[in-house]
Predict the structure.
Amino acid sequence: MFSYFAFRRFQPLILLLLGAGFFIPADQALSLTNEQAQAFSAEYMKGCLQGVSQFGLDPEKGEQYCRCTLNNLLQLPDEKLQSLGQLSEEQIKQDSAIQNAINSCVSTYIKPGE
């Protein structure tokens, strides 16, 4: 398990990404189309890589982290993925599925024991 410090290092980046409002607003009754998934992926990677740069993180490791979190987020149910842009920061922090999708990728950036 990673230390609390390791998680805290990424928390601002995580909240920047999930709270930025660049997620696709879509009808909750519809599932994501390929076009919506591609648009989500492109916007997520753009925002994530900007966050990596803004926080002065290693670009290569940051890109790996962004791709990992994107892949995990795309595994969430469509309804949850579509609602991300509407969730408050507190709701994002309390949603175990979203947190698991993000936290499971910390190892792509931080070596165990750091």
